[in-house]
Amino acid sequence: MARIKYEYLLIAIALLWILFFSFTIQLTPYFSVIGDDGSYLYAARLLYFNSQLDNTRPLLITIIHGVPYLFGFTDGIVIKWGIFINFFSWFFTAVFLYKIISKIVDRKYGFLFSVLFIFCIGNLAHCFNFLSESIFIFLIIYSVYFILKYYETTKHYYITIAISILFLNTLIKPVSIGLALILLVFFITKMDKIILNKFSFLLIVSFSLIFFQMYSLKKNYGDYTLSYISSITYYNYLGDKADCYKKGIEFIPGKTERSKKFGLLSSHEMKEIAGKDLIDQLKNNTLNLFKAYLFCIYSNTHKGNFIVSECKNEKNTSYFAAFHFLFKAVSKIQNILFTILGIFLSFKCIIKPKEEASFYTLLSSHILYLFLVSGISCFQCDRFHIVFFPLVILLLSKEFITTKKSIWNKFTIVVLKKNMIMLRLLRSI
After folding, report:
1. 265-to-79, 184, 211, 269 alpha-carbon distances in Å
2. pLDDT band at residue 417, thresholds of 50, 70 and 90?
């Protein structure tokens, strides 16, 4: 089969799946008034109309979302544009998975594993909302593509490009700073070659934008930081849950007395209070903080997709209930299964001998990092975990081909042994 046909098949499958998925559960692109959609729209308006950065939503995602404002379009068009970018990012995540796995295994399995990603319920469902996960995931996989190019060619400028992408991704979601630092640590001994090459300007651009982000927040809110979102999230979820354990009261996000008082503070005060609270709980409420962390990990692992769950049978179709239940169940199973497989395969890669490290150890480190930091919040369903699903699929493709070769080798050895026994018997006769 010609190379281009696999890509055409991906397009056809993706389009048909989107239409079927949307039609059966009546899920259409929409702006959620109860989710984080509003904060992304507010950040875009703040930048384009007031020339100011939001305290939680970084520069790059705000620029991308607000592009239609440059041409005089309304909020409605901005939302549609953001959702279009989500679908674009989702599809090209599948395309680059195909490209990566085609190099690791072969094109046939590259196609099959990229189709597996296309059928991940949570990843597709998030495209329908005005959020940033799809763009964030695409940039992670795009960086992995260049990391693999380095391992194929040993040309250091590919790592320069990958690091630059991950640093730029911190301006989509600040959590990407950890991914970039992990990559830097992996190649610390080759840093001179990574910094000094023809693509060094990309590092300068990414660092300049990060500095601008931090300088702007310092100027407007009081701190040199990428975002205040981590402080706010910790205090209102992980920290608040631990405090509720200590006081023996029910934890309802945003409804406790402490979280209500916290919401009245300035951004600078929030960051300061959250930092002090974390230190205090580590010292004086360690066990409850650990219990709260485990609770957050559990709550984000055993639930399905909240966007699918919120769908309603407004057209009163006879098939809605069946497909709604099916997709909720599948998204839950996918979240549990990909999380468990991701952790297991990651540890399996990391504990291997050094000579077998490299590319897969790096992927494993990224998966474990994304999984561990997800414990900062709870009740997020699969939202925090879908970001590492494509990385798990990459490890699965490697594990599949390794297992396949192992089975074939064992089979070959058994056949050879049987043949040797037969030859000895024939000779004895």
Report:
1. 29, 36, 25, 6
2. low
